[in-house]
Design a protein that fits this description.
Number of strands: 10
Strand content: 15-25%
Number of helices: 10
Shape: globular
Largest sheet: 8 strands, mixed
Length: 289
């Protein structure tokens, strides 16, 4: 199925959580001079406009990044320091692009944070999205793109030459089989790159599918596996995404405390205050003893 295009959802609350955590992880890797390799299994178009017809049609960014930017304008205090730094980075990206309506996808966040020695590999199967992705990355020789199905082809790109790497696994979950495919892909990748940092995104639509995904990943018993989740509103059939989560495997040091500092604020400001809730739990701690 190739109907999903992320432009309709760019900058929504799920993007905010995903890109904020991706930002923290990549920033942590930059503390060392040794290179890292970033992978995105479902890269999308790379960059989006918050004023595009697709974005305006759904209005999802209104309760996501647009809301956070409005809050930041209204108050220079009260925001967690990690959120302030993330929003300042977004402002820098927009300033460099000379487009205040631009919203960067995961590849764009990675490109902005990459150094000369770092590399990225981006996969996208949708032909329209892939062409946009190629146009976006243009002449950046640090980045390679492939029009491939990650569930079939991604493992061939591992391991990276660099000793360190971040693999973002974020399919659209249009099909229920994607949940099982994610676990299968993860197991295959771990055989080739066991010490990589894996970020696995999932939506909360109706409780059930993601619970199975979490159980399967927990059963792998990989030390330092962290779960982060925000539920924006009460789940109700037919109303779309009610929450979002990210699983971090081989979680870098202190990332949990950085996320924990910002998570209550994000949950309160991205969701229905009466129904919003969040959790951050070690699915598997650092020590299994």
């Amino acid at each position: 199925m190739l109907s999903y295009q992320h432009g309709y959802h760019a900058g929504n609350a799920a993007d905010v959580l995903k890109h904020f955590i991706l930002f923290l992880v990549l920033q942590s890797l930059k503390k060392k001079d040794t290179p890292f390799h970033f992978y995105d299994t479902h890269a999308g178009a790379g960059a989006y406009s918050l004023e595009s017809s697709e974005s305006l049609k759904t209005g999802e960014a209104d309760s996501g990044i647009k809301k956070l930017l409005q809050l930041a304008e209204q108050s220079s205090t009260g925001l967690p320091s990690e959120i302030t730094l993330w929003l300042k980075t977004l402002d820098l990206i927009q300033t460099q692009a000379k487009d205040t309506k631009l919203y960067p996808g995961s590849p764009y966040w990675a490109q902005h944070l990459m150094r000369e020695q770092d590399r990225a590999t981006l996969l996208e199967l949708h032909p329209i999205e892939y062409q946009k992705l190629r146009d976006w990355k243009a002449r950046d020789k640090r980045i390679k793109t492939f029009p491939e199905d990650s569930f079939k082809d991604f493992k061939s790109h591992l391991p990276p030459r660099a000793a360190r790497g971040v693999i973002l696994i974020d399919p659209p979950y249009e099909l229920r089989s994607d949940y099982l495919n994610v676990t299968t892909l993860l197991v295959e990748c771990l055989k080739r790159f066991a010490h990589g940092i894996y970020l696995i995104w999932y939506p909360v639509v109706e409780r059930g599918n993601e619970i199975t995904l979490l159980r399967q990943i927990k059963d792998l018993q990989i030390p330092k596996t962290l779960l982060v989740e925000i539920n924006f509103r009460a789940e109700r059939y037919g109303l779309g995404i009610a929450g979002t989560g990210l699983i971090i495997i081989n979680c870098p040091w202190q990332i949990d405390s950085q996320i924990n500092s910002a998570l209550p604020w994000l949950a309160n400001n991205l969701g229905d205050i009466a129904a919003a809730n969040y959790r951050i739990d070690w699915l598997v701690p650092e020590s299994l003893s």
